[in-house]
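The material for today's practical consists of a large collection of protein records. A record pairs a protein's sequence with a compact description of its fold. Instead of coordinates, the fold is spelled out as a row of discrete tokens. We will come back to this pairing of sequence and fold again and again. Here is such a record, shown just as it appears in the course material.
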Amino acid sequence: MIVSQYAAPTIEPITREELESHLRLDADTLAESLTAYTCTASGSHPVTTGYTLYGTAVEVIGKKSLVYLRPVNNGTGATVDCKIQDSDDNTTWIDWTGGAFTQVTEANDTVIQEKEYTGVKRYIRTASKTLVLACEFGTDVIVKEATSTESDLLTAIIQAAREYVEDFTRRQLLTATWDYYQNDWPSEDYIKLPFGNLQNGVGTAPVVSWKDTDGTETTLTVTTDYLVETNGEGCGRIVLPYGCSWPSGSLYPSNPIKVRFTCGWTAAASIPSKIRSAILLMCADLYSNREGQIFGTNGQGYQENKTVARLLASSRLFDEFI
């Protein structure tokens, strides 16, 4: 099997804060771990048409974060409405459910409001509107971030544990994009893809392409030239539609057929608890034995954590690939 990772995961199955809680450890002081970002600058903001006053995006994925609305003074009869929006790509934004602040009026224009963001998107911002008269206010995002050497170690341990679990289970745990190469079209009417949890949404549909002897690349058309089987947590497939066949042109001599596909669970919370628990156990072991694994008295070397193996056993993919 020839595969190459095109885009790596952007989040981990567990956060540094979750591992710190598991280890009963607080690596940073409160002052060290909290960073304040200005979203909407404090000042007098004029009347708007709808929610058109957008704050600066702040990256919060994998971190705990609070959003503050800091009103100062409303004009007579004026109101401020503010809500939290989130995005995967800092381009397409949607309102985060539960992210609307209490409307600011003259009666409460000195009360600071806060909301914890508990969503799963990469970026957040505020969107505000002001009615009747200009109002003075601003919004901030407070993020708990890694700052110490100990925090960097925990981050590295989480990644190492996740990569081990992926190797053991032969799965891609969280969203990543891969290129899968073949030297010939299969004799079957399908191409099976590795790693499980094949995605087939907007921007994540598998793309099949091939090169002829001159190196000219042709991209097939989904639903016309091939269908997509996601097959849940199992291995997905590229399938020929009824009455269709694979292209018949002469193939390029090196990796002529490529399937670019995206797979993995889309959020850490979607990963089965047994896998997340196994990662926590591995992280604790790596943290406690950071200088080297402990050898057994029988001289047979380190005794692998049997609980980790048992937790992961039923999640392993056994599909064979050439």
Summary: The chain has a mean pLDDT of 91.
